[in-house]
Design a protein that fits this description.
Blueprint lengths: L10 H15 L7 E7 L5 H14 L4 E5 L7 H4 L7 H7 L3 H9 L9 E2 L4 E2 L4 E2 L5 E2 L5 E6 L13 E6 L2 H12 L11 H14 L1 H4 L2 E4 L7 E4 L6
Parallel strand pairs: 1-7, 1-8, 2-7, 8-9
Antiparallel strand pairs: 3-6, 4-5, 9-10
Helix pairs in contact: 1-2, 4-7
Length: 231
């Protein structure tokens, strides 16, 4: 996992976060602005989203931080195609109906504004009754996670970011975080790496995101492309 962000240690990163926060802050909205931070496992999405939230708060915007990892499917559903299936990882990991019902829908146009940030804990394999919260007009939802540019989610985002990181880098970061093998070709990583390759090929997030960032060096991220089109 990347170290905690400190502007004095990473001026390039700080400048990019400030620029992104100002860009998001300038997007017109009549309700809640919904922003996705996408990337493969180990890309550094959570830390990036947290730091971006801090910059938005500094601009006076309230933020709602959430992660797709709080909307997993039960273990039985996640592994119904087999414990090592890449297709199963891509198709069955998350409960998108719950994500829409509890979070994205209430924060969308015509939504109630009453939302919950979590629905399921995959570690205990049990549902979570997260407290109901109420959004205000002008709030910004920052949702981090994998697979966020799949077809069913693309229309949701008012703005999206894809952190582009090769598997050689992302899996090494996961190894530091989780204790797995740093080799993308290791059998224990096959389900996850190949599942994400399916996503990259089918959903082309590098072309769908509003902004694509080369995030191999988290202290010196580089904007590669403004994205092929709006998500």
């Amino acid at each position: 996992m990347p170290p905690a962000f400190h502007p004095a240690l990473a001026p390039v990163r700080h400048a990019l976060l400030v620029q992104l926060a100002e860009l998001i802050d300038a997007i017109p909205t009549a309700g809640v602005l919904r922003v996705a931070i996408d990337g493969v496992d180990g890309a550094g999405k959570t830390t990036f989203a947290d730091d971006l939230a801090a910059r938005l708060v500094a601009l006076g915007r309230r933020t709602i931080r959430a992660s797709v990892d709080s909307f997993h499917q039960p273990r039985e559903a996640r592994y119904r195609r087999g414990r090592h299936s890449p297709e199963g990882f891509f198709e069955d990991s998350y409960d998108y109906a719950a994500l829409h019902t509890k979070l994205l829908g209430p924060l969308g146009p015509g939504g109630s504004g009453r939302y919950r940030r979590a629905a399921f804990d995959h570690r205990s394999d049990a549902p979570v009754l997260a407290p109901e919260e109420t959004a205000r007009q002008g709030d910004v939802l920052l949702l981090d996670g994998i697979f966020l540019h799949r077809e069913t989610l693309r229309p949701v985002w008012d703005f999206s970011i894809f952190l582009a990181v090769p598997f050689e880098v992302s899996v090494a970061r996961m190894a530091t975080r989780d204790g797995c093998s740093p080799d993308p070709a290791a059998p224990e990583n096959w389900r996850y790496v190949d599942g994400q390759r399916i996503y990259l090929a089918r959903c082309t997030p590098q072309l769908r995101a509003s902004v694509v960032i080369d995030y191999r060096d988290w202290e010196r991220p580089v904007v590669v492309s403004p994205g092929g089109r709006e998500p």
